[in-house]
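Actin cortical patch SUR7/pH-response regulator pali, Aspergillus arachidicola. Tokens?
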Amino acid sequence: MINWSNILPTLTAFIAFILGMLCLFAGTKTSLLLDTDVFTAKIYTTSISNGTGMRDFYSIYVMSYCEGFLHAENRNLTGCSHPSLLFSFNATEALTKDAGNTTSLTSLGWPSSITDDLRTFGATTQSMGVFYCIGIGLAGLAVLERLWFVIAKGPRQTVVEVSSLMLSFAMLSIPSIIATVIALQFVSLINRHGEESGVTARYGHQFLGMTWAAVGLLLVGSTVSLLTVLVDRNRSADQYEPVAEPKTVAEDSDSVASNQKGD
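Tokens:
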């Protein structure tokens, strides 16, 4: 019979490890999970991008961005930036580079307010990669710890595993919250500021689904692991409660004699 209290925390940690890796490395290559961007800013062929060299869309990921052109809403990818752990999207640098560095974005009709919005969120998004690395590392560590305790024939769950799972849960929760804020607030801000210039944005549903699935799995795994440790400790305490030793025949005889003498 499968002991789920022993397997479930490790299984959730392993799946969360995989999901976290996918979130972290999405968009680092032109063929790697391009539909799992944090958010995409689309510059429809309007007076802004037409003839300037600027791309129709810029998809923002945790460690990079990808760009390309739109053909009947189909994305034709032209390339991705080099991945960086401390990545934040620099709109001015990316767009002026595509435009040939010959003019300012303002003269092309790019809303300066969107550049300001991206700069404001830059420091926040820059930390996402670091938190993902820590959270993923701790999830992987929890899996390795379970393998070690299985080989060493240790207890079903340990405080070390509980700590790794809970810390991994906390570390992955932070970038997931940041991504959610970007999805609900930042995208709306870009759409409002870029409405007159034809600049719109949308957030990545699949990315949010993967990152929150990883967080949810770690929450379940750490909870089961903690409960297992507490239950096992209570059982151990009950087993080692002191039990009164039975009296010998001699002790019983002395006790009876003592009672009779007292009478």
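The helical segments are 4-25, 91-98, 105-108, 112-126, 128-151, 159-193, 205-239, 249-262.
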